[in-house]
Each structure stands twice: as C-alpha cells, then as structure tokens.
Amino acid sequence: MALLPVTGNEMRFHALIGTGGIGTGSFFALNGNHTLGREESRTGKFLENKDYAKLHIITHYVQTLMGPQFKALPIGRIGTDEAGRRLYSEMASAGLDLRYVRALDDAPSMNCVCLLYPDGSGGNLTVGDSACGRVDTTAIREALPDFVVFAGRGIALAAPEVPLEARAELLGLATRHRFFRAASFTSEEMRSALVSTMLAEVDLLVINHDEAAALGEVSSDQPTQVIAAKAAEKARSMQPGMWAIVTAGTKGSWAWNGHHLAHLPAYEVKSVNAAGAGDAFFAGVLTGLASGLSFEDAQQLGGLTGALSVTSPHTIHPDIDRVSLAAFVWIQQVKPSPSVMRILGVGP
C-alpha cells in the first residue's frame, strides 16, 4: 500500500491521461553480451519473466505511487484474447481507470520478444499489426470530458507503440486544456516530420541514449553527456521551455531544465532485468512532479524507481510503492534530497 504524505490539496497534478502501448511479450535470454548482428545466429532460451508495454508500465507505477486520490486514465486497445483479458485484469487491480481501454475482436493484443543480454541490458522486437495500431484520433477524443474536468490540473502522456497521429491528437487536447505534456519517442520516430511538429507541444521529453542521438543527429558512439547536450539544443529549438531527460542505464541520467544540464549518477544495484527501467524512471519523474517536487528532485525519484525496478525479473516490479522505495533508500544508504525523503515518508 502506498504512503500518502502528499494530500490532494498539495498535489500539483491530480490526473494523468495517456496513450501508448498495452501489451505483453516473452523474454529471450541471449548467450553472449556482444550486440546481435544483422545476419548472426545466436543461441539462448526463453524465460518466465513477464513483459509489459510502455503505457501499462508507466501508468501502473504512477497510479501505485500516487495512490487512490490520483486518477490515471490510459487510452489504449487490446484484443479479446487471453493476453488482453489478463492485461485488463492486472491494470484494473492496480487501480487504473480503464474507461478508455477497449477490447477488439478483430486484432490481437500487442506482443513482443524482449532480447535480454547476460549483463541485463536488452531491447524489444514488437509486432506492428496489433490492437495498439488501432488507437486513432477518435479514440483519443473519447477522453475529452476528462480533459475538461482536469483542465490545468493534469498530465498528458504520449508514449510509443501507438500511431503518431493519435499521440499528436492527445498533445493537442492537452495544450488546449492546459495539461503538463510529457512524451517519449523511439529512435526511428525521431526522424519523422510529424515528431518535429509534436515536440512544439511537449513540456517534458524523456528518452534514452540512442533516441537522444537520433534527435540530436549525432552518432550514438558519442558519450551520453555530449549526446544529451545536442538533444537538449535541438529540443530547445523546437520548444524553448522544454525540459528533457536522457537516460543511459548504469551511467545515470542527464536532465536539461531549460538553463543547464545536470547529471544524476545511477544508484548501484544488482540488476536482474533492465528491461522497463526507462519506463519506471519516467513514471518516477511524473510521480515526483505530480507530488509537487522540483524538476531536479523528480529526477532523483525517477532514478530511485528505475533502480529498484531492475531488481525484478519482470518489466513491472510488483512490489514497488512508496514503502518499498523508502526501504530501498535505507538499505542502499543513498541520500536523496530532503524533499524526496519527505515524499517517501522517511526522515524528519
């Protein structure tokens, strides 16, 4: 159960309306840490780990960490198959408001294969003809009543794995209703002209090393700090007030607050599975901002959430809440800011 040191009156934001992928997948553990080549054959084995899609991961953690006084409303599509039924049940159990999640008879739930290297890193191969591809502008407009209800008090989240046009519609509604607008994009999407337009309606961009390289139009072989600076420069040219965070796994994260770039080292943990850590980080940042933390402190909460997430074999760590994050702080003997400690209910 989540601790709730922040009352409804103290929260900066009271709801999150987001779209993105809802799906499941399988983990395939590769033998060998070197990156899989285009024409390479590699042995490995399937694992029992549970895999989830981006929107599900982010909204699960935000709802769990914020508690029942906060409303997270995902907009998505699943199939009427067994996977869709299981996903719907798990999201409902986490307290998510599923009024905008629809099950389709003529499209399967999104499925993917997550490649996992021995060092805990990995990537996803995702099918492109799933129910998630049916999330269109009409689906987004169904949420208009809640954009009106939470005008000026909500977060809009545009996450990958649904069409860009739907995400653009969500950001447009968010702009008109004065929502805080958060987004991420894949490396491939960064080259889209539509993304360049969409970035003008983003207040917070959270992307990884490779995605930042694509945005900044630099080689991914460059150090993350260099790539983050280039990405921030590009983001600033599209939306001068944009905040941006670039995550880089064990190297930590770099945050651009509109004036300077700040590095937060990664918390040292024994990684079981790093898949989903970036989404957990994103959720921690959004939770911090919704709880009234500064951008810098929200980055710390994101770092803590991402670090604890990699200690689970699943891409949603089933035990993460404010209590387990507080325990993680004490056990690891890390020292986040007093504001983060207060949000977690520990310290003076």
Explain what the structure shows.
Helix content is 36%, strand content 20%. The chain contains twelve helices and 14 strands. The strands form two sheets. The chain has a nine-stranded mixed sheet, with helices on both faces. Strands 2, 3, 4, 7 and 8 form a five-stranded mixed sheet that branches. Helix 7 crosses helix 8. The two termini are 21 Å apart.
Which structural class best describes the helix and strand composition?
alpha/beta
Q: Major β-sheet, in short?
A: 9 strands, mixed
Radius of gyration: 19 Å
Q: Helix count, per DSSP?
A: 12
Order of strands side by side in the largest beta sheet?
6-5-1-9-10-11-12-13-14
Overall morphology: globular
Strand content: 15-25%
Straight-line distance between termini: 21 Å
Average of the residue pLDDT scores? 91
Query: What ranges have pLDDT less than 50 throughout 5 or more consecutive residues?
Result: 1-9
Number of strands: 14
Helix content: 25-40%
Order of helices and strands: EEEEHEHEEEHHEHEHEHHEEEHHHH
Question: What is this entry, summarized?
Answer:
The protein is built from twelve helices and 14 strands.
From the structure above, extract its key features.
alpha/beta, 12 helices, single chain, about 35% helix, about 20% strand
Note the topology.
Blueprint: E1 15-19, E2 23-30, E3 44-46, E4 51-52, H1 54-66, E5 71-79, H2 82-93, E6 101-104, E7 110-116, E8 122-126, H3 137-141, H4 144-149, E9 154-158, H5 164-176, E10 180-183, H6 193-198, E11 204-208, H7 209-216, H8 224-238, E12 243-247, E13 253-256, E14 261-264, H9 277-290, H10 295-309, H11 322-332, H12 338-343
Parallel strand pairs: 1-5, 1-9, 2-7, 5-6, 9-10, 10-11, 11-12
Antiparallel strand pairs: 2-3, 2-4, 7-8, 12-13, 13-14
Helix pairs in contact: 1-9, 7-8, 9-10
